[in-house]
């Protein structure tokens, strides 16, 4: 038997350590599935102030106690600690970068949790983290077959590998996954010297006169993936405008770019076994879902009425998530329809303010929780009747898949992974798993919601729609198998990468 493929998986957030959105769930689910396929995959992330060392069983590694990391003209100290990621069947080694000023002293991952304002030194924070990843590998003399980085926060890892230690990492292949092209890690040109990269590499970090960590990742990676086939086509076809980065992607990776659809980890997201929800249930008996609905409304201090449908939303407050559309139609929806909405999310200050205003306007119909709460996220999926995702862009999306598995009907715009995972319901044939609309307009969104409300008032059709979704299969194993094939193609180089990507 040959040696197991070795992979270092680098992400700014990984469930259950740190989470602001789907990236954390994807990181956990994919890593666990890779382990189950026999890959020696290890994980690395920062330890933010919100991460409990005791709860997550984080402990010191004596020889990694004080690694010097240059940030500009200063030297900061990284202490790398250890933990494990596990499910009932397997476990993976986790490395955690700690540093008091940059991470341990911040409760938020990227922004102040009270104001939603991004930290002013995010450039330095993730320069420090990325450099710590490479220095740890170098110190341990562990040069994995593949380093797989995720989103802009990890983009400089690839640059450091190829410029600081090209000989040591000469056999290491570099993969980068775009989870959201709209988030790029853009900083002023003055950030360049802070990176410690050689001056000849500067041009590969600059995009439109600014430092762009996502561009750095595209420049130094050998293969780029994204999280759904449709989003990949949208990026390559110019349907998604991302500050011109999509042009860099087309130039650098036209034949080394593929969309691999995310899965769902049913050890975590499963209404039959979910430890976060008070009443568990399955497709054969949906009655406990109503009791979860009661618990959900109680949590938001809203009145329970079984005849009144509840729409859930869990999202980052960012323009690509369709928050503008929601804010446009919500007053009309809440004043004209017999409906309640519960909202969980955090992000840009202007959206926080607008949502707080909406809550004051409709205190009995609109429940709001600003921030992120894992237990509440599960309760929303279990207790809501419908789930709203009016995204302008949605690379993959996880919540529409959770919603279907929990019998909560997704109302989505046909973009990215939403198009790949949700089939519009046809009342005549009884087929479909959700409500899908296309135009990015308030009118189209409102029409889609009203279509869902009309179906809710037809119990037989509604039950068919709910059951269709609950019987869908969203396995991480399929996605992990594709990644293993990709890794092996890069490592062995026995055939053209483009031929392998076409099969995927």
Number of domains: 2
DSSP helical segment count: 17
Strand content: 15-25%
CATH architecture of the largest domain: 3-Layer(aba) Sandwich
Q: What is the radius of gyration?
A: 23 Å
Shape: globular
CATH topology of the largest domain: the name is Rossmann fold
Q: Which class of secondary structure composition applies to the elements?
A: alpha/beta
Largest sheet: 10 strands, mixed
End-to-end Cα distance, whole Å, is 25 Å
Question: Could you give me the name of the CATH homologous superfamily of the largest domain?
Answer: Glycogen Phosphorylase B
Uncertain runs: none
Question: Could you explain how this protein is built, in words?
Answer:
This protein is α/β, with parallel strands linked by helices. 37% of the residues lie in helices and 19% in strands. The chain is built from 17 helices and 19 strands. Strands 1, 2, 3, 4, 5, 6, 7, 8, 12 and 13 form a ten-stranded mixed β-sheet that branches. Strand 15, helix 10 and strand 16 form a beta-alpha-beta unit. Helix 5 packs parallel to helix 7 (245-253), helix 9 (323-336) runs parallel beside helix 10 (349-361) and helix 9 packs across helix 14.
Short recap of the structure:
The protein has 17 helices and 19 strands. Strands 1, 2, 3, 4, 5, 6, 7, 8, 12 and 13 form a ten-stranded mixed sheet that branches. A six-stranded parallel sheet has the order 16-15-14-17-18-19, with helices on both faces. With 504 residues, it is of the alpha/beta class.
């Amino acid at each position: 038997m040959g040696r197991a493929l070795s992979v270092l998986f680098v992400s700014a957030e990984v469930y259950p350590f740190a989470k602001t959105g789907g990236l954390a769930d994807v990181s956990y689910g994919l890593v666990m599935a890779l382990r189950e396929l026999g890959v020696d995959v290890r994980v690395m992330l920062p330890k933010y102030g919100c991460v409990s060392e005791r709860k997550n069983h984080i402990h010191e590694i004596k020889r990694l106690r004080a690694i010097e990391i240059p940030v500009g003209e200063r030297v900061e100290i990284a202490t790398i600690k250890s933990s494990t990621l596990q499910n009932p069947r397997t476990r993976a080694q986790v490395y955690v970068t700690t540093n008091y000023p940059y991470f341990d002293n911040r409760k938020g991952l990227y922004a102040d949790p009270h104001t939603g304002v991004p930290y002013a030194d995010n450039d330095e924070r993730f320069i420090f983290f990325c450099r710590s990843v490479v220095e740890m590998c170098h110190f341990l003399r562990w040069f994995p077959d593949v380093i797989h980085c995720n989103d802009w926060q990890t983009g400089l890892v690839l640059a450091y590998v190829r410029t600081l230690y090209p000989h040591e990492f000469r056999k290491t292949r570099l993969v980068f996954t775009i989870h959201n092209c709209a988030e790029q890690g853009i900083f002023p040109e003055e950030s360049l010297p802070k990176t410690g990269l050689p001056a000849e590499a500067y041009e590969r970090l600059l995009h439109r006169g600014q430092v762009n960590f996502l561009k750095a990742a595209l420049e130094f990676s050998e293969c780029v993936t994204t999280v759904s086939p449709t989003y990949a086509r949208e990026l390559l076809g110019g349907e998604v405008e991302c500050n011109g980065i999509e042009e860099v992607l087309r130039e650098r990776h036209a034949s080394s770019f593929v969309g691999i659809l995310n899965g769902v980890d049913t050890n975590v997201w499963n209404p039959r076994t979910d430890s976060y929800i008070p009443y568990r249930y399955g497709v054969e008996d949906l009655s406990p879902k109503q009791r979860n609905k009661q618990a959900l409304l109680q949590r938001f201090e809203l009145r329970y009425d079984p005849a009144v449908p509840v729409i859930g939303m869990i999202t980052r407050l960012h323009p690509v998530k369709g928050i503008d559309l929601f804010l446009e139609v919500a007053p009309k929806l809440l004043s004209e329809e017999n409906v309640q909405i519960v909202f969980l999310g955090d992000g840009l200050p202007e959206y926080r303010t607008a949502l707080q205003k909406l809550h004051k306007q409709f205190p009995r119909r609109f429940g709001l929780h600003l921030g992120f709460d894992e237990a509440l996220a599960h309760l929303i999926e279990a207790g809501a009747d419908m789930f709203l995702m009016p995204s302008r862009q949605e690379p993959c999306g996880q919540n529409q898949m959770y919603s279907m598995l929990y019998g909560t009907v997704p109302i989505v715009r046909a973009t990215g992974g939403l198009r790949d995972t949700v089939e519009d319901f046809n009342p005549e044939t009884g087929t479909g798993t959700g409500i899908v609309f296309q135009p990015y307009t308030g009118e189209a969104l409102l029409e889609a919601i009203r279509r869902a409300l009309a179906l809710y008032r037809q119990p037989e059709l509604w039950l068919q729609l709910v059951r269709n979704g609950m019987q869908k299969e969203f396995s991480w194993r399929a996605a992990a198998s594709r990644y293993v094939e990709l890794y092996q193609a890069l490592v062995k180089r026995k055939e053209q990468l483009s031929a392998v990507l076409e099969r995927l």
